[in-house]
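Here is one record:
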Amino acid sequence: MKRSYIISLLLAVAAIAWVASGQLNGAEEQVAKKPPADLSVAGRPAKVRVRTQDAVARSNSTLLRGDTQAERSVDIKSEARGRVIEVAVEKGSRVKAGDVIVRLAPEYRPARLQKAKALLRQREIEYEAAAKLAKKGFRAETNLAEAKAEVEAAAAEVEEAEVALANLVITAPFDGVVDDRQMEVGDFADIGDIVARIVDLDPILAVGFASQRDISQLEVGDPGRIRLVGGQELEGRVRFLSAVADPETRTFRLEIEAENPGSQIPDGLIAELILPSEETPAHRVSPAILSLTDEGTVGVKTLSANHRVEFHPVRIIGEDSGGVWLAGLPERVTLITVGQDYVTPGQLVDAVDEATLEPVQRGALK
């Protein structure tokens, strides 16, 4: 082999060795420069915010939805035939029992009454004469009985004529408000025609429907409140509680009665029926901190003394502008208010007080 070939081969091998050694050293330097993974982060406890609060006594009220209804509502109907000659009330006016609503034309009725009275006087005279003759033995007892029957028949005709005349004046059956009026002067009223509608709004009723669970805790005479849409509240009592459930809804009709002086509250307003029961310890919280288990149980997550997450099932017993009221929690509890969705019962966590943002020391909770 020529000397030049050998030199060329040696130079090529040296070049390859030099290039390879440079790549390896660079790779080692890059690996050495990469920072090591911080394995301590994965083992740190999750951070949550908490609030410690005490329960307050709250009435465990039953809340029903319903509406207001009049104590009584009656369509007054004519009991006579005749032309309307007077309408004494307007729609919306208040009336007392016995106040005149409508008058009908008397027509022949006064004359009929006079005729019946005259016939009665005649029958009475005939009976007195028959009684005297019967006493002397000149008339049979049967004739005397017949004369007495004629007196009674004449008296009945007088009474019938008086009732017919009285029916021409249609009056209010009770104190109330004229909700509607069907007749005007000149109209003809027939027997059974509606003349006006009278509603009795004092007391006012609030009517709702209680569930099978609520019915066992309620009794007639229990105190209750009626809350109207505008915020007005009335104190009352349970007047009626149905003993038979509605076949479609399986609920029971319930009525609360309250005073309504001046009939200020009308029939048909949307209302809430509030039925208080015994007081129970409760916590008011934001609905946002409520949790739901896979089984559908509603509850909240709390912090134990050793900073472990705990789950407490709760029962919602009310709500207001400040949140929802919960029963079923301890008297004093430390609620997890932020981060509760990312921790599980039994998990160790680091807690921060939501008011001060200062860490809560372990063992500080009681």
User: Anything to note?
Assistant: Helices lie at 3-33, 109-136, 141-166, 212-215. Residues 47-58+280-353 form a domain with the conserved putative lor/sdh protein from methanococcus maripaludis s2 fold fold (CATH 2.40.420.20).
